[in-house]
Specification:
The protein has helices at about 5-15, 30-40, 50-60, 75-80, 90-105, 130-135, 160-180, 200-205, 215-220; strands at about 20-25, 45, 65, 85-90, 110-115, 145-155, 190-195, 210-215. The protein has an eight-stranded parallel sheet with strand order 7-6-5-4-3-2-1-8. It is an alpha/beta fold and about 220 residues long. The longest helix has 20 residues, at about 160-180. It binds pyridoxal-5'-phosphate (PLP). Pyridoxal-5'-phosphate binds near residues 24, 47, 69, 212 and 214.
Length: about 220
């Protein structure tokens, strides 16, 4: 068995029933994805539109493609026909564009709100307060071709695992608050996308339902 297949099996066997693996295949070849597919993996995460588009064209059609990176509004149209979930929605502008493109394709696209809980400065992601406001103001309720399925976050890039745990916990608390508040009537609001290769064990303890694991499966970038 290849390293890729061993890792897929090892990780999926260790997950609780409520957590799924998103195999992050960005920068890895189609043949790497085919190996993971042969081990039964069906959800793959990509973060570049052109790369995803090429892989989508060549690979089996029962793959669920999750877009996990920052998505520019002008690129939504390329992936709207087939993308299964968009993880990093952080503005009404982006959500509105996804809705518009999904409508053109006759689809409803699952989206997660990206939360910024890490220490690093970044212009991406809602702060917890912004996210609360966004959810409560409820403009998203007017959009019928997107479904907000939960929250996504990345922890600080640190070896301080207590810090990482604190950040995931903060995301989980907000998820629970929104689930029983603005999304109470929306059972599809149920996903917590947190945890990568080095911190997914902690993420699972802090409620993750989607772990996004790349390098521990596929190794370092192959191109
Ligand atoms: C690349 C990436 C991952 C996977 O990271 P690994 O450390 O390789 O597991 C997860 N989430 C996002 C948003 C990424 O860009």
């Amino acid at each position: 068995m290849s390293h890729i297949q061993e890792e897929i099996r090892r990780i999926t066997a260790s997950l609780p029933a409520t957590t799924s693996l998103v195999a992050v295949s960005k920068y890895h070849t189609e043949s790497c994805i085919e190996e993971a597919y042969a081990a039964g993996q069906r959800i793959f995460g990509e973060s570049h539109v052109q790369e995803l588009h090429r892989k989508y064209a060549h690979l089996p059609k029962d793959i669920k493609w999750h877009f996990i990176g920052h998505l520019q509004t002008n690129k939504v149209k390329y992936i709207a026909p087939y993308v299964d979930m968009i993880h990093a929605v952080d503005s009404m502008k982006l959500l509105t564009e996804i809705d518009k493109q999904a409508k053109k394709c006759g689809r409803v696209i699952s989206c997660l709100l990206q939360l910024h809980v890490a220490l690093e400065e970044t212009k991406f992601g809602f702060t917890p307060d912004e996210c609360r406001t966004f959810a409560t103001e409820g403009e998203w309720r007017n959009l019928s071709h997107v479904k907000i399925c939960g929250l996504m976050c990345m922890a600080s890039n640190t070896n301080d695992m207590q810090q990482v745990r604190t950040e995931f916990h903060q995301a989980l608390e907000l998820f629970r608050e929104l689930k029983s508040g603005p999304f109470a009537a929306h059972p599809s609001f149920r996903e917590c996308s947190w945890g990568m290769s080095h911190d997914y064990h902690i993420a699972i303890e802090e409620g993750s339902t989607l772990i996004r694991v790349g390098s521990s499966i596929f190794g370092e970038r192959t191109y």
